[in-house]
Amino acid sequence: ADSTVEDIEKSSSQAECSICFSTYDNLFKTPKTLDCQHTFCLECLARLVAAVPSDQPTDNILCPLCRQPSAIPRKGAPGFKTNQEILSKLPPHLQQEEPVWIEGSKLCYKRTPESVADKSDFCICIDIGLTKSEENTGTSLHSNRIQGCCGLMNDWKRILLFFVLLVILVSIVLWPLQCVFTTGNIRCFTSSPVPSPT
Question: How far is CA 141 from CA 19, 134, 147, in A?
């Protein structure tokens, strides 16, 4: 009975990344093994590689579990060895590893058409964090500022509400002033005399 519980715990712990707790697949969550034999998903390792300071003398990342260094492959995180044992335990349609590559600060995958009739191919990229070059960091800060300004403009409901309230406020304040200036009288609202009963 104890071995069954241990087997279940072992298989369930191998079915998910111990950093993000996502289940493994054959794309961005491909199980990749470090030199210390600990396995994590490709996306988490790519984020760890992206977080390595550019002034660090060696191109190593430290295992999040045991702190043992592992050399970063030339291809980046996709170059780490795939854990075929875990991959083989996935559902059959996820057992074939798909080609994933690093493009700048993105992890990318391009689906190829599966048949001649299916001509739709598309590319999926996910952002994995900051790039190491300072040029890109400056560019990303500039683009973040632009996105912030555009984000304000995209919030059109708030802007519209602001202008409607502004027009109403100006109308309430300026209409009596306009009346005072045109009539020369402070009493713009003259009430019609109430007829007296005779």
Answer: 28, 11, 10
Going along the chain from its start, the domains and CATH numbers come out as: 2-154 (3.30.40.10)
Q: Please, are residues 186 and 177 in contact by the beta-carbon 8 Å criterion?
A: no
Angstrom distance (rounded) from CA 23 to CA 18:
9
The identity of residue 140, as a single letter, is: S
pTM above 0.90, yes or no: no
Contacts of residue 109, Cβ cutoff 8 Å, sequence gap at least 6: 27, 28, 98, 99, 100, 123, 124, 125
Per-residue pLDDT of the chain (198 residues; tens, 9 = 90+): 444 444 444 544 458 999 999 999 988 999 999 999 999 999 999 999 888 887 777 788 999 999 999 999 988 889 999 999 998 898 988 888 888 988 888 888 887 766 555 566 678 888 887 644 444 444 444 555 555 555 555 677 888 889 999 999 888 888 777 777 788 777 766 555 566 666
Q: Cα separation of 195 and 178, whole Å?
A: 30
Cα gap 81→60, rounded to integer Å: 15
Buried b (16+ CB within 10 A) or exposed e, 136-163: eeeeeeeeeeeeeeeeeeeeeeeeeeee
